[in-house]
């Protein structure tokens, strides 16, 4: 079915067809099933994983073997609902959770559906993503946005979900002093989430002065600029602890390098926690014996689960403001798609690059 599903214009999408090659081409949608909805995309953000796929046709152990529609941070407007859908109507504005779990495996039944091995996740090979005019998606993974939450903010629920899930995994609360390694998009949303969960003091660490200034403007209590040199580790740990001014209860490594994880482990108090979010390096050399002697718990996370309602409530209530994170906006043309990914890949002053469709 080459049409958008309603006999209207042809549905188009941004296809990853090769290294550094994106093409806007037709994207055929299935007909809407009884428990599905068809959504007209309005806001789609670029994630670091999207850039990885573009640059290398792979991200971690996921490899792109055939052309794939890119994008998974998204929100839009309902255009068609399946016969059994009761929770949504045409015209509703929704944020989409991008992963469809099987619902039958031990992980799904045990409440950890994010670990489902049969997960079908937007723009994770071989599943197509959402940088398209329209997509078809399960209704129960489309979350209605309140009037005062924008579609762009709705699309930001996906990265924000990582920070929310991390804070839940690490049990962040009003007595948790937090260290965050990395002031990129995930470091910043983790910082915003930690504050919303009640963390009284948050220190953020990065190598980039500009990103640290952004973190400070978004509410970090203080920051420490570090180097990439492992020889500086001990001095930087001392400096981080001094700037915190009290015990570091929980550290989040939003980078995932040997040095950042080692810094997090060595900075955290006896009996504290370190949560690994970033996936920078597959292999790391870490001071585990020292961490073990201090009973530092190491927790990890993969994506998120049951986060959209809380993210939307944080946005609605004003506890979290993600709008300053959206630094660049582009339309949906061949030229703009290419330019948007270039801007995102360059980094610099780009935090979140957003498409307005």
Q: Which terms summarize this structure?
A:
357 residues; alpha/beta; Quinone Oxidoreductase, Chain A, domain 1; Rossmann fold; 6-stranded parallel β-sheet; globular; disordered N terminus; GroES-like_sf; zinc
Could you please describe the fold and organization of this structure?
The protein is an alpha/beta fold. The protein is 29% helix and 25% strand. Strands 3, 7, 8, 11, 12, 19 and 20 form a 7-stranded mixed beta sheet that branches. β4 and β5 form a beta hairpin. α4 (157-169) crosses α5 (185-196) and α4 packs across α10 (308-317). Mean pLDDT is 95; it is low at 1-7.
Write the layout of secondary structure elements.
Layout lengths: L11 E7 L2 E6 L9 E10 L2 H9 L1 E2 L2 E2 L4 E2 L3 E9 L11 E4 L2 E2 L5 H4 L10 E2 L12 E5 L3 E3 L6 H5 L1 H13 L8 E4 L3 H12 L5 E5 L2 H9 L4 E4 L7 H12 L5 E4 L4 H10 L5 E4 L11 H6 L3 E4 L7 H10 L8 E5 L3 H13 L5 E5 L1
Parallel strand pairs: 13-14, 13-16, 14-15, 16-17, 17-18, 19-20
Antiparallel strand pairs: 1-2, 1-6, 3-7, 3-11, 3-20, 4-5, 7-8, 8-12, 9-10
Helix pairs in contact: 4-5, 4-10, 7-8
Subunit structure: Homodimer.
Cofactor: Zn(2+)
Pfam family, one: ADH_N
In whole angstroms, the N-to-C terminal distance is 21 Å
Large-scale geometry: globular
Mean pLDDT comes to 95
What is the CA-atom radius of gyration, in angstroms? 20 Å
* Backbone structural class: alpha/beta
CATH topology of the largest domain: Quinone Oxidoreductase, Chain A, domain 1
Secondary-structure arrangement, i.e. CATH architecture of the largest domain: Alpha-Beta Complex
Give the full name of the CATH homologous superfamily of the largest domain.
Medium-chain alcohol dehydrogenases, catalytic domain
